[in-house]
Structures are given as C-alpha cells and as structure tokens.
Amino acid sequence: MSVFSHPEYDGHEKLVFHHDKSTGLKAIVAIHNTNLGHALGGCRMWDYATEDEAIADVLRLSKGMTYKAAITGLNIGGGKSVIIGDPHKDKTPELLRAMGHFMNTLHGEYITAEDVGLNEEDISIIAGETDYVTGFDRHHIGVDGPSPYTAYGVFRGIESAVKFKLSRNNLQGIRVAIQGMGKVGFGLARLLIKNGATVYGADIFAENIDRAVRELGVIPVSPDGILQKNVDVLSPCAMGATLNEESIPQLNTPIVAGSANNQLGELADGRRLTEAGILYVPDYVINSGGLIKVYYQYFGADREEVISHIDQIADETLPRIFSVAREQRKPTSVIADELARERFMSGEVEQTDAA
Ligand code: NAD
After folding, report:
1. How buried is residue 245: exposed, middle or buried, by Cβ count under 10 Å (0-12/13-18/19+)?
2. What is the pTM of this model?
3. Which pLDDT tens digit goes with each residue over 51-102?
4. In order of start, what are the domains of the chain with their CATH numbers?
5. Which residues line ligand 1 (CB under 6 A)?
C-alpha cells in the first residue's frame, strides 16, 4: 500500500505506527495539520479487516478533525488515532496503558480522547500513563464525557436547520427520524422529545431501541426503513456513508442533520442532496459539541463556556453556511470545507481564555 500517494493522504504532517509486542497493541496516529495548534482527536478501536483499511480510516478521520477544529474556531489542529483490534475481545488494561506510553513518545503533538470502541473508563486507563489525553473525569469530580455535548450540539443544529429551511422557531410537532440510538442518538431523542418533537428511532441492537422506546417514548422503526421515513428531519447517528447515490433518491425529508461522521459517501453526494432540495447540515459542524467539550476540558474552562461555544455554532456558524450555500448555489458541505480551509490555511488563531 502506498502512503504518500494514498487518496486520503492530503498532505498529512505525520503518520506514526506503533507495535507493542508484549500487549499486542497495534496503533496508528495520524496528524493532519497543526497550523492552529497541537492536534486533538479521538482514538478509535476497531476490528479492521486489513491494515490498509485502518490506514485509510485514520487518515480520513484525522483530516476531518482539522476541518472540524477550524470551522468551530478552536485553536487546535487535526489528528486521530486507531487501535487495530476487536474492542470486545482484545481490549485489556495493559493494551490501553501501552497506548498511553505511545502517546508520550509524541510529546503532546497529538492529544487523544474517546471514539468508537473506547469509553471514558478506557480513556482514564490511558491517562494513567500520559497527560496527552482529554474527555474524562481526571479529577474525579463528576465531569461527564463528550457525548451529551455532541447530542446537545446536534439538537441545537436541528433547531437552526428547522428555522432556516422550514421557517419554524420551535420543534413542536416536528418529526425526526434518528438512525442509531447509541450515546448520541439517545441523548438527542431525549432533548427533542422534551421540546415537543415526535421522534422515530432505529437501531440494529434491539436493546438500544427498546430502551429508547421504554424510557423516552421513541416510536420504533426497522433499521431498513429509517432512512426512507417521511419526516421533517433525518438524523443519522450511527455509522458513516449513509448518504449516497442509492440512498439519496429514497429520502423523504427536507433536512438531514445528524451526528455520524463522514455521512456523505463521496463529495458528489453533497451536490445530490442540494439538487434534491434537501438541506444537509455538514456533519463535522453539527457534531462538534463533543470536540468543543474535550477541548475546554483539556485547557480548563467551565461548562457555561462550553455551552456558549456550542450555541454559537448553531446560532452563527450554521446559519452562515446555509446562507452562503444558498447565495452561491453550492452544497453546504462545500461551503463548510471552504470556510474551514480558509481558517486553517491562514493559521490565524483566535484569542480565547482557554488555550
Ligand atoms: P454509539 O456506538 O454509542 O452508537 C451508535 C449506535 O448506532 C449503536 O447503538 C449501534 O447499534 C447503532 N447502529 C449501527 N449501525 C446501525 C444501522 N445501520 N442502523 C441503525 N443503528 C445502527 O456511538 P455514538 O457515540 O452515539 O456516535 C454515533 C455517531 O456519531 C458515530 O458515527 C460517531 O462517530 C459520531 N460522533 C460521536 C460523537 C460523540 O461525542 N459520541 C462525537 C462526534 C461524532
């Protein structure tokens, strides 16, 4: 496999491989761009079928972090790491500690946090070995993880999209279909229902959807039918690449707004959504609440600052993307990329109290 000419390489600054013989750890850290500061991004543990798949994933995710940090106005660069292995079988405290030692060899150039396959407890174990980690309760003072903040950001992003596209100032009676009732999907459903929306949900794990039905009053839909559900907002909160040439013509919604990373199968899908008259809320903008939270947590700021920054994304950044996209007749995904690129290429950092 080629690396420098890999389609996802995109000028990455670093790709670092690590193998720890005694624990079996095989990990890769990708650092895409540090113009705005040290790289920050989660660590994903996944049972990749091949090493090539792991490399492609870490490169794609890490590049995404650069764009996300830039568009959210944070003074950090983009990076991500992956651990190759099945989190249900291969994850041991020793392996996580070895990941912590690996982090130290990068001297803080990359700061990690949780992602798919790792939870807050795992992150605490890594943190036992390194300071270059965030998004967990370091001081045991009951600080929560990133997911509730991601859910809040998606909720606020949906409000923003509904206002722009449907000219509605509240979510009363708005129908939302959520694909994936996991950490974010569940929290989002709770906020939506509390604010008068009707929520349809689907999950491939019966236990997750059953809990949402029982505890929140979510209306269950089969995982095969959720994307086509006739609703006001479709919210993909499971895995990526759900929006593609095949699925887009089948959508029955004026708005797509969810937390899943990399929702577009390919760049052209942004155009396909625009042409179908669907307002797509760019994934890495609407799901930035978790990153904002772990950023402030690392640099030390309080909950009010986190919430106010997330509100700013929904009240200023998203409406700006929607308006520019409409004016220039371009996909919202393209406008978000342009605005983000402009900022990280300029390397101009914001003056904040945090970093
Ligand atoms: P999670 O693993 O807790 O939940 C995902 C849920 O989706 C699981 O319940 C899973 O069973 C379900 N699922 C998987 N494939 C499905 C399918 N085809 N149909 C229906 N359900 C399906 O993950 P999460 O933390 O809630 O994250 C959800 C998405 O949001 C992921 O793509 C993640 O990368 C992204 N994201 C999460 C955060 C965060 O703070 N947790 C931040 C940014 C982005």
Report:
1. exposed
2. 0.91
3. 999 999 999 999 999 999 999 999 999 999 999 999 999 999 999 999 999 9
4. 14-127 (3.40.50.10860), 147-288+316-335 (3.40.50.720)
5. 116, 146-147, 150, 179-185, 202-205, 208, 223, 237-239, 259-261, 287, 290
